[in-house]
Write a structure and sequence with these properties.
It is a single chain. The chain is of the alpha+beta class. 26% of the residues lie in helices and 33% in strands. Strands 4-13-16-15-14-17 form a 6-stranded antiparallel barrel. A 4-stranded antiparallel sheet has the order 1-21-20-19, with helices on one face. Strands 3-18-23-22 form a 4-stranded antiparallel sheet, with no helix packed on it. A hairpin with a 2-residue loop joins β19 and β20. α3 packs antiparallel against α4. The protein is elongated and about 115 Å long. The relative contact order is 0.22. The N terminus is likely disordered.
Length: 360
């Protein structure tokens, strides 16, 4: 195979205008570009659709409750949902018969009667006080009894609400005809029924979960190289490659995994995308700095120095730049303006001309 160097020297002969070792300007006419295979492209401002990319997986929100707990121990009478079914917060999921609840309901009925009696006594003593029949001290005592009756019923209402009773049912005199001792377990969050943990007829102790609800709020989990995670800040905007839905960085580990040399992160979607937990996506981390995007094939490396060839009226200007990697390309925070033309092909020939190859 013939060497390309003699051919390049022939092409360069007569094109260089100076015999200096490193020129600042390479004089070339437009007619020379095609012959030398030099291709130009304009640089553009960088945006959040560009960045370093890493594999990531979709997970359920770690801060959303996804378990259906039993507030009062009892026997599961029936499931009102099936696995895979979507539910909203407050939807009925199961019926539980509980002796503990039966006693609570009896106390609730007695408290309602006691409050009605206290309201009657308060109204009566208010009238008697106006007529001067009873003392102010007697009326204050009646007021205190009324307040105690209100507090007792308010506490019992709160305990019954844990058993799934709605405010409308608590406002009724009979809990809207509910079967004594039977209460409804309701979903604490919107989501889908992932798993039913016990069967009908089984006894469930209080404060244990009997179903798992998959959250509809999706997050993204990724393990990043420590160098990539170092400059990330909580609240920073991230993206999924090929998606317009942004994410917000919510959590970053502050310890490096000693085996993989990675740092774990969690980001929440700023919306509710139709994604399944476990789905694998590509996380895009856009640059935080502003500047222009420099294609990787336009950059010429000379030791630690990086430069590009910028098209000018006189030819090509060799411009040294401080560049930051952005995926396969680079970010130039200064030294280039959007719209300027740079060489993205034929840079080897331009470098040879810069070094004076083919000069007289």
């Amino acid at each position: 195979m013939k060497s390309w160097k003699p051919l390049m020297l022939v092409l360069l002969s007569g094109l260089t205008t100076s015999g200096s070792f490193a020129q600042d300007i390479i004089a070339l006419q437009d007619s020379d570009l095609n012959r030398l295979g030099i291709v130009l492209a304009p640089v553009s401002n960088i945006d959040d659709s560009i960045g370093n990319s890493f594999p990531a997986s979709v997970v359920n929100s770690p801060i959303t409750s996804s378990l259906l707990n039993v507030p009062y121990g009892g026997i599961l009478q029936s499931w009102l949902v099936e696995p895979g079914q979507s539910v909203n917060a407050g939807d009925a999921m199961a019926l539980i018969y509980s002796q503990d609840l039966l006693g609570l309901e009896n106390d609730w009925h007695e408290a309602r009667i006691a409050l009605q009696q206290a309201e009657f006594e308060l109204a009566k003593d208010s009238m008697l006080l106006e007529q001067g029949i009873i003392s102010q001290q007697r009326f204050v005592q009646t007021q205190r009894h009324h307040q105690e009756a209100q507090n007792t019923l308010r506490t019992l209402n709160a305990r019954l609400s844990l058993a799934g009773f709605t405010q409308a049912e608590l406002d009724s005199a009979t809990l809207n005809g509910a079967t004594p001792g039977v209460y409804t377990l309701r979903s604490p969050v919107p989501g889908s029924v992932d798993h039913l943990m016990i069967t009908v007829g089984s006894f469930a102790d209080s404060n244990i979960p009997i179903a798992r609800i998959g959250s509809q709020e999706r997050w993204l989990s990724a393990e990043l190289p420590a160098s990539a995670a170092a400059n990330l800040a909580l609240g920073q905007m991230l993206r999924v490659e090929g998606s317009a839905i942004p994410l917000t960085l919510r959590q970053k580990d502050y310890e490096i995994d000693t085996q993989s040399q990675t740092v774990g992160i969690l980001a929440s979607f700023n919306g509710n995308p139709e994604l399944m937990a476990g789905q694998v996506l590509t996380l895009l981390i856009p640059p935080r700095e502003s500047g222009v995007l420099v294609p990787g094939n336009a950059v010429v490396h000379n030791g630690n120095e990086t430069s590009v060839y910028v098209r000018t009226a006189e030819g090509f200007e060799i411009r040294s730049l401080q560049l930051s990697p952005v995926g396969a390309d680079y970010l130039a925070s200064e030294g280039l303006q959007a719209g300027e033309l740079i060489a993205i092909r034929g840079t080897a020939i331009l470098k040879g001309m810069q070094l004076g190859l083919g000069g007289e």
